Design the sequence.
């Protein structure tokens, strides 16, 4: 697929507010930003129109409004004023710009606008406001994959960007918006699309097409005998689905090596359960609805690598694993009470087939750990929609859990600051001795137990213990700060941070991961 085919719409840099190529101007700002009009040459011409409208509508900067303006100032005669509301209180953050831009574009679409020009008034407190606003503006412009395939349509002809700020992101606004938009499309296409269109083999096919002739090497393991031998727990989760050829498991490997000497190596493993029935511990009472998004961890991995593909960062190497399975129920389904020997040699006692995400990622994580031992400054990650407990703990925010070496590097704190700056906050959870003790086996048959028989929401520290399990079962715990070869490892439990099904998702924590790991090398 070409870059243009993955963009929600064509992204163009505008010459001025009077550019006749656009049929509306969407102006995003706050009440305080009105004072800036005279100082910002690019938008000073519309200051009188905004002042006049504010006399009629004092709350204009708390909503989105369509304002008629003189065509000598804005050729289309249409100005959409989309206010952020308050941005000066301690608890206000840059996401107000994202929400305002989204509302502005939604109003533009309802008014029949096809080529809007987006302008975001700068705010010294939020240097990335223009980028964050642009990503919000593109959210309602995304067209689902199945609709694009059947109707081949886009909602807008183009989105213009007129950068008026002086930050680093403002200077490279068009480049960053294109990279993020393409990465969002890959993430949404994989993460949101239903379990048949995005069954494991078709995810692999989509990813191969999305990265064809690009900078990412894609390798797909599709031989089920190889998956059974090398990734036995992943194979167990997919055992019932394997009877249907179209549902057979796939392990997708993505690899990128940037120009110059490698300084950092990232290994990112994503959970990719295309539909989670719960298996033999069946989800009932409507709780299966929306479980097509249980592959969103792998979707984030795909989106992360598309951003890398577009931006071509230097001095890094990145390896991704998308672990694509279907947790079906049937006569061949894996069950509780099984003891399965993992790739690491650890014997795992199964307690609950609806805790399949950690099992799906475990053996690919072990492989990544094996590779990391030979890599330059490696950092391992797992990314997954893993537990309801995380959702109860943090709502619509992902949670990071660092091991000892990652914590010593300060990574979680650094990336948390990045998330705040780029409008995608992320929370930090800590691991304690009881999280590791919880997964010790209760019988001689096994080394570790997968979990317990309760859902995570009924389990103390229900989102922290899986991070401990993944460390022990992959033997990453043998590479702590006191070892001869420490390895940094961070587990990210996304919970439901991408948003509620079936509404359009906002890829999370994709913005933060790209900003924290990729942009510093661009």
Sequence:
């Amino acid at each position: 697929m070409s870059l243009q085919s993955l963009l929600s719409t064509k992204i163009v840099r505008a010459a001025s507010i009077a550019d006749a190529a656009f049929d509306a101007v969407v102006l995003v700002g706050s009440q305080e930003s009105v004072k800036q009009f005279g100082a910002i040459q690019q938008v000073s011409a519309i200051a009188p129109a905004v002042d006049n409208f504010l006399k009629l509508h004092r709350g204009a900067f708390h909503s989105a409004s369509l304002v008629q303006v003189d065509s000598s100032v804005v050729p289309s005669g249409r100005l959409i004023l989309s206010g952020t509301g308050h941005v000066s209180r301690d608890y206000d953050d840059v996401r107000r710009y994202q929400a305002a831009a989204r509302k502005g574009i939604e109003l533009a679409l309802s008014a029949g606008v096809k080529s809007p020009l987006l302008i975001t008034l700068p705010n010294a407190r939020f240097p990335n406001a223009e980028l964050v606003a642009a990503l919000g503006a593109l959210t309602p412009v995304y067209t689902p994959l199945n609709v694009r395939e059947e109707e081949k349509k886009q909602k807008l002809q183009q989105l213009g960007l007129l950068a008026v700020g002086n930050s680093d992101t403002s200077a490279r606004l068009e480049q960053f918006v294109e990279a993020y938009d393409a990465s969002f499309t890959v993430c949404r296409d994989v993460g949101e699309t239903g379990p048949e269109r995005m069954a494991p083999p078709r995810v692999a096919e989509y990813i191969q097409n999305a990265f064809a002739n690009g900078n990412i090497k894609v390798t797909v393991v599709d031989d089920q005998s190889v998956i059974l031998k090398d990734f036995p727990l992943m194979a167990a989760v997919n055992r019932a689905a394997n009877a249907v050829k179209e549902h057979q498991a796939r392990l997708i490997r993505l690899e990128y090596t940037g120009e110059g000497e490698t300084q950092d190596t990232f290994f990112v493993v994503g959970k990719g359960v295309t539909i989670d029935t719960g298996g033999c511990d069946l989800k009932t009472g409507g709780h299966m609805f929306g479980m097509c998004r249980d592959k969103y961890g792998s979707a984030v991995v795909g989106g992360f690598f598309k951003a890398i593909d577009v931006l071509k960062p230097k001095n890094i190497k990145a390896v991704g694993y998308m672990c694509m399975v279907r947790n079906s129920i049937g006569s061949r389904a894996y069950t509780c009470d099984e003891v399965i020997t993992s790739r690491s040699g650890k014997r795992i006692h199964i307690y609950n087939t609806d805790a399949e995400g950690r099992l799906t990622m475990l053996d690919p994580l072990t492989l990544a750990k094996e590779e990391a031992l030979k890599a330059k400054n490696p950092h391992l990650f797992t990314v997954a929609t893993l537990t309801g407990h995380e959702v109860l703990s943090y709502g619509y925010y992902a949670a990071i859990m660092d091991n000892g070496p990652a914590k010593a590097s300060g990574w979680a704190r650094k990336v948390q600051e990045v998330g705040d700056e780029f409008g995608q906050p992320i929370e930090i959870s800590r691991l304690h001795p009881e999280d590791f003790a919880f997964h010790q086996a209760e019988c001689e048959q096994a080394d570790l137990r997968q979990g317990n028989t309760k859902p995570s929401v009924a389990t103390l520290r229900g989102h922290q213990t899986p991070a401990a399990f993944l460390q022990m079962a992959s033997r990453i715990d043998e590479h702590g700060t006191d070892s001869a070869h420490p390895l940094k490892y961070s587990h990210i439990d996304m919970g439901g941070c991408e948003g509620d099904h079936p509404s359009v998702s906002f890829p999370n924590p994709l913005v933060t991961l790209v900003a924290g790991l990729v942009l510093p090398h661009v």
